[in-house]
Amino acid sequence: MIVKYCFLTLFILTSLLVSCHRMPGRVVVRTMGELEKAITQAQPGAVIVMANGTWQDAEILFEGKGTEQQPIALKAEQEGAVILSGQSNLRIAGEYLHVSGLVFKNGYTPTSEVIAFRKDKTHLANHCRVSHCVIDNYNPPERFESDTWVAIYGKHNTFDHNSLIGKRNRGVTLAVRLNSEKSQQNYHQVKNNYFGPRQNLGANGGETLRIGTSHYSLANSHTLVERNYFDRCNGEHEIISNKSGNNIYRDNVFYECRGTLTMRHGQHTLVENNYFFGNRKPNTGGIRVINEYQTVKNNYLYGLTGYRFRGALVVMNGVPNSPLNRYNQVVDAKIENNVLVDCDHIQLCAGSDEERSAIPTGTLLAGNLFMSNTNPRPFTIYDDVSGITFEDNIINQGVELPFDEGFEKVDYAVSENDGGIPAPASTLLDKINFSTIQTPVIKELSGARYYPREDIEVGFGTGKVIQVTPGTNTLIEAFENSNPGDVLELVGDENYVLTKDFGIDHPVSIKTPAGPPAIIQSEKTDFFRINNEGALALENLYIDGSQSPGQPGNSVVTTSKYSMNRNYKLFVKNCQVVDLDVNHSFDFLKVYQHTMADTVWIEGSTFKNVTGAILSLDREVEDLGIYNVEDVIVTNSTFEKVRGPVIHLYRGGTDESTFGPIVKAVDNRFVDCGNGKRNKTGASVKFHGVQNMLVDGCTWQNSAPLVLHLTNGEPIAIARNSEFRQTPGIVSNNDQFTTENITLSK
Ligand code: CA
């Protein structure tokens, strides 16, 4: 009996398998030739299955005509097991085509788009869908070579449940294009996607999502952006750049994103029920309103710290009769029933200047609930707000308001709700008819269902400790046997000599445990070179330049000479750096063009007898708003007899898309610095184009001046509690900086 059933089951299973394989139109393909043939022959209802494995340099053109009832499918044999690598890409053209389950990684597109909803200018995709696909770190090595990962053309296309993770070069992650009539009034849907971490580009062109361009911004797009999860999308200050009409942004989550949803161009945008979790991270922003007839309602914003254009809520001034690419006046905006908890900056008439002089008109700010414990003055008004009506808003006691009416004052009442979200008391929410505070989408359920969403960035000191014996190149050998995050521990008072090239291509710490430092010398031009994917922490070391080659232009730390598409970090703690003086122009840190540090941090260190600069961060000379470092922190350190500038930081141009560079120099001593005849800056410290600067508790003696060149972007520059002895003090191109308790003495 049992045997009989088994046979019967086997028979049914076999029949199913056979029938499955013979299902009309279902074909498994293993080569590009088979794939192309299957696509050419595909009829409505066909299912083309790409066999599991790595498809190298696969340029796929999926062109065909399915029907609404019987689309043509191109799918992975197993979701996530079909890897498109090398120089691969995908173009889709035709109707009712559905692509799913593909992963792009380990390479980059040979063209300017990875997934394009078109074959060429005349053959577009309509009613097509891409779902459960992944593009993961699929970047060209050149940081400023621009590409777009997903470009949607045509009409009625859907991009859903995809994961786009780790775009590191210039160019929008996902762009909806409206560059011909056939792509306007498109009614696309972008939903349930996971937009994974995007590092700071340090320039314009790092948007995560853009719909339209200024050129076509008068056209309507009607794109719906719904239930997407934006996870630390930090490319630039526009996370989303809306540049066309009638788009809807609804039920999205923005998790610790440094930037804003910007209504840059286009009218009749609806921004509704989105959740912004800044969690007090720097430069996190919310919603920026520009143009006519925008609606912002029922959004929840928490812990956003960004200011100016990156505020939690920003209403801009416009340009009278604005050209397409500038700023239209805000007309008849409705900003209603939003909840803002501990958001630091609400900016009205932002950007007001001679050009942007058209104030918002017909605008309503009503029924919003502001709970602000972190900043007692969250509102900044840059111009005349008489065109904004304030009604029925609620705000907590203790907040200073620049308006006479339209706000009811209540006690601050915020507590974590069942979902772990800081929520105002329900009595307050009821007053503005805000339903439950609940995240509309969670990270784990966004994006491609099979693909991990964890962080891959490795920090310092997260790996194992490796003891390194003193000697020649033992340090390099130890590094070669280390893994990302490991710590190379040296023996105090002993010598470590480098006679070979030392390229660092993963994060590593090199340190001596407490006590006297180990001594490091190098016979090469550079001690350490940070390559792409590398990062370096130096702690308690004695770095001696006396054995370096007798040529000009040496350095202790340098970057790759080539473009780096991964940002790096350099930490220097409790180190003594001496005698970088075998010849002229011996720098401590020398960087190359198109490299970018997230952070350069010097703490508790001394530098003595240096013929070049300590931090030479000045290689983006083309004045395009590009720069070499986001955060420079120098604290508790002494610089003595440094012939070049101690810090030279340069960001040229008039771009307003970035947050940095940001500088903090606190409790440092500069003695005889910047006086070398080769020092073209004429400065002991020079900051050109910084956006945020704090100099505090520093002393200069017999040194060249602190030179500031402050450009656009309303930089915040503060110098205080500092002393200049036999030093010219501060030299600046304008007076856009503030000083407090600065003394000049002989
Ligand atoms: Ca931008």
Descriptive notes:
This protein is 6% helix and 40% strand. Helix 2 links the parallel strand 1 and strand 2. It folds into 3 domains: 26-232 and 441-455, Single-stranded right-handed beta-helix, Pectin lyase-like (Pectate Lyase C-like); 275-439, no CATH class; 506-745. It has 746 residues and is mainly beta. It starts with a helix and ends with a strand. It has a 20-stranded parallel beta sheet that branches. Strands 1-2-5-8-12-15-18-21-24-27-30-33-36-39 form a 14-stranded parallel beta sheet, with helices on one face. The protein has 4 helices and 72 strands. Residues 1-22 have low confidence and may be disordered. It binds calcium ion.
Secondary structure: helix percent: under 10%
The average pLDDT score comes to 95
Number of strands: 72
> What shape does the CA trace take?
globular
Number of domains: 3
Distance between the termini: 108 Å
- Structural class assignment: mainly beta
**Number of DSSP helical runs:** 4
Proportion of beta-strand residues: 35-45%
The major β-sheet equals: 20 strands, parallel
Small-molecule binders: calcium ion
Uncertain runs: 1-22
Give me the Rg, rounded: 29 Å
Secondary structure layout:
Layout: H1 2-21, E1 26-29, H2 32-41, E2 47-50, E3 53-56, E4 59-65, E5 72-76, E6 82-86, E7 89-95, E8 97-100, E9 102-107, E10 113-116, E11 125-126, E12 129-131, E13 134-136, E14 148-152, E15 158-160, E16 163-165, E17 174-176, E18 189-191, E19 194-195, E20 209-211, E21 224-226, E22 229-231, E23 238-243, E24 248-250, E25 253-255, E26 260-265, E27 270-272, E28 275-277, E29 287-289, E30 295-297, E31 300-302, E32 313-316, E33 334-336, E34 339-341, E35 346-350, E36 363-366, E37 369-371, E38 379-381, E39 388-391, E40 393-396, E41 407-410, E42 414-416, E43 422-424, H3 426-431, E44 465-467, E45 471-472, H4 474-480, E46 487-489, E47 495-498, E48 503-504, E49 507-511, E50 518-522, E51 526-530, E52 535-539, E53 541-544, E54 555-559, E55 568-573, E56 576-580, E57 587-590, E58 597-603, E59 606-610, E60 615-617, E61 629-635, E62 638-642, E63 647-650, E64 662-666, E65 669-673, E66 685-688, E67 692-696, E68 699-701, E69 706-709, E70 716-725, E71 730-732, E72 738-745
Parallel strand pairs: 1-2, 2-5, 3-6, 4-7, 5-8, 6-9, 7-10, 7-11, 8-12, 9-13, 10-14, 12-15, 13-16, 14-17, 15-18, 16-19, 17-20, 18-21, 19-22, 20-23, 21-24, 22-25, 23-26, 24-27, 25-28, 26-29, 27-30, 28-31, 29-32, 30-33, 31-34, 32-35, 33-36, 34-37, 35-38, 36-39, 37-40, 40-41, 44-46, 45-47, ...
Antiparallel strand pairs: 42-43
Calcium ion binds next to β23.
